[in-house]
Every structure is written in structure tokens, then in C-alpha cells.
Amino acid sequence: MIENEQTGRDRASGYGNSSVRPAASQDWAQLGGKRISAGRVLLIKAGLVLLICAAMALLVWKWSEWRAEAQAGSAYAAHSICSCRYVAGRGLESCKQDAALEADYVYISDEPEQKRVTGTAFLLGSASARLKPGYGCLIEK
After folding, report:
1. pTM
2. Torsion-angle region of residue 123: left (phi > 0), alpha (psi -120 to 50) or beta?
3. Is there a contact between 119 and 126 (Cβ–Cβ < 8 Å)?
């Protein structure tokens, strides 16, 4: 016991009275009540950065394809609902139910005074179709 008092060591920590004890924030982090080493925290952060970069690369790579598909889907929905509404003379809700099977992600807006239907896929594309007498519903540019 005298030996421990002379060296100044604390039995619980194993470190002396000097400032040799490492700071807890440098060696360990708390995550859900568990202690995680600084190296593991760095590895988790690097993994998250890599995952975010991969998601951004996928978004950039597929953006033009998704946009083309949304544009085609919007045009299809606008044309089919315009034909259903103004050529066949059915109600808008009835026509929306028919198109919902193929274009469920397209928002439809109707302009009865101009006999125009617009289909919009959020942030990706939109298209309008208008009734032209003698020709039916035509996609507008």
C-alpha cells in the first residue's frame, strides 16, 4: 500500500496523478450507451460519406433516364385522359381511374375551358394534351 502511495497510482484507472490520463473524447465515443473507439467512429463516418457519394453518383447517372420515363409517362397520361374526357365524354374521376394503373406517379390537372389536360411528374417532367376538333387529342410541346 505504501508503494502505491509513493507512485501515486490510482487502482481503478491505472494512471498516476499526473496529466498522463488520455481524454475520453479522443479515444472513445458514446453511441447508444456503448463505448466505441475513435478508429471505429472514423470508419463509420467514412462509410457514410462513401454511401452518400454512391447515392449521388446513382442520381447523376440515372437522372436523364428517369426524366425521359417521367416525360413519356406524363405525355401518355395527358393524352389518354384528354381522349377519355373530351372525345369519349366521360368524367374526370372516371378517366383518372383508368390511367391510374399505368401512370400512378403522374399528377393530372384539367382545364375544361381550353379542353386541355396536363400530366406532371414531380420535378421530372410534364406534358399537355389538347383537343383539336377533327384530330382528337394532340400532345402539345
Report:
1. 0.62
2. left
3. yes
